Amino acid sequence: MDEIISSALEEICAKGRDGLAISSLCSNLNLSFEIKRALWTNLLKIPTIQFQVRNLVYDSDDPSIRCFDDAEKLDLVIVAKDRLRDNFLGVYGFSLGVDEKEYRQQRLALERIATARLI
């Protein structure tokens, strides 16, 4: 299960700020229904991702998304928070003497590379 969760997080992070619809995630990973449910249960426990539909952000404890089927019907999008995306991109803060503007430019470039990888 750890490998599946890791693959799911990689897919989510690679989509950047736009996130990944739960339906797309599951089709990309080609999983059985039981595994999808188990994956969903585990994703809900990860504090560095958030769940949203349009501009509405759902808490992982929200009853309307706790069930995989309900979340899929909502067309829920899973978005990695900045900290998780930074780790995925290999950006571990800008304490190396890089100013914030340069850090943002580097991060944007890395996000574009990650997104292009999926095309």
UniProtKB/TrEMBL annotation:
InterPro entries: Tfc3-like, WH_GTF3C1. Residues 1-92 form the General transcription factor 3C polypeptide 1 winged-helix domain. GO terms for cellular component: transcription factor TFIIIC complex. GO terms for biological process: 5S class rRNA transcription by RNA polymerase III; transcription initiation at RNA polymerase III promoter. GO terms for molecular function: DNA binding. This is General transcription factor 3C polypeptide 1 winged-helix domain-containing protein. It comes from Corchorus olitorius.
